[in-house]
Each structure stands twice: as structure tokens, then as C-alpha cells.
Amino acid sequence: MSLSLQNRHALEGHISGFSSFSNANHLSIVRGVAVISILVQPQRAEDARRALATIAESSARSCGPFEWLIVSETRSADSLLQEAISLDAASVDQSDGRVVMRIAGPDVRRILGKCVAVDLHPDSFAEGYSANLLIARIGANLARLAGDCFEIVVDRSNAVWLFEELVARGREFDLSAGFVG
Predict the structure, then answer these.
(1) What Cα–Cα distance (Å) separates residue 136 from each residue in 37, 109, 113, 115, 164?
(2) What's the CA dihedral at 47, 153, 91, 9 to 10 degrees?
(3) Which alpha helices (H) appear in the chain, and where do they start and end?
(4) Average pLDDT over residues 80-94
(5) What's the DSSP call for residue 96?
């Protein structure tokens, strides 16, 4: 007897009833994303921060003083881990344990404002900024990618709860949702 394992996305059964097009405010669930956790010794933090910014086709998200997430939609986790080795850092592939959501639109700050206790004004939460925080009582990493576009990296075990909370809080803004990638 052979065992067949399926790789199912954590939100596979929860995105239904949404139209096939995106509204002005949209929550995208990104498939096939590589997510690497990096932890460096304090004396190497500044060197690591500069080196992480140069890794092609990825973005480094701050999680704390000496910790980052490296996120890439185009590179494999293995290739990112190889680059992390050169940093003399502890690195772990978190891709299967994390879910990446992107929320964008003209009302994104109002939607997220119902879920977070931080100021999302562009002067306070600038493009490229990221932080670990609570989003609807769930620990996650929030990054501002562009003007009205934020990305959330959350543990797989909390993804359904966070997805449902975001959809509920975005209902009045006609938030649509769907998979991308």
C-alpha cells in the first residue's frame, strides 16, 4: 500500500463564495512563498542587515533586534538558505509553517486599523517597514510593501482565524479575497 500525501494550503477550504475578480480592497493569499527565519548574534546584526538587503528577489522583514524573515515568491527556500549560510546566522525554512497574505486597497488602513494597535499612517509605518505585532489577537509579521499594500506573515495554525477576522472586518469596505500564485 502506498501513502499519498497532498500539499494543501492552510486556507484551501476557506476561500469559497468569493467572486473571481478583485474589488478595490482585496486580500490575496499567496501560494508557493519561501519564508526563511534568520537569527544572528548581536555583534553581527548590522552586517547581517546590510547583507540581507542585497539578497536578490526577496525582501527582509524585521522581527526584532537580531531576527528577520526573508520572503520570496520567486526563489526556493534552499537557495535562500544557502545565502543565509554566508551570514554566519542561524536559519530555518519556515515556508510550510507560515502563510503569506497581502491586503491592498484604498481602505486598507481602515481595515487593518480594526485589527492592530499601531499607527499605520505613512509617516509612522513607512514603505519597507515591518514589525511583529498582534493582528486580531494573533501574532504575525506586518510589512508595508507600497502605498496601500501590506503583507502579513502568520503561522499556519493561526491563518484560518486571521483570514476570517480580516474578511469580517473588511466586509463594510467590500473586501474581496482569493489565491494568487
Answers:
(1) 23, 14, 10, 5, 10
(2) -150
(3) 45-53, 77-85, 108-113, 156-170
(4) 87
(5) G
Longest Cα–Cα distance of the chain, Å, equals 60
Residue 6 C-alpha cell reads as 497532498
The answer to whether position 33 is within a domain reads yes
- Three-state DSSP state, 4: coil
102: domain range?
26-180
The SS3 assignment for 177 reads: strand
Cα–Cα distance, 94 to 101 (Å, whole number): 15
Q: Is 126 helix (H, G, I), strand (E, B) or coil?
A: coil
Answer for the pair 69, 94: CB distance below 8 angstroms, yes or no.
yes
Report the CATH number at residue 39: 3.30.1360.120
Average per-residue pLDDT in the chain? 89
What is this structure's pTM?
A: 0.88
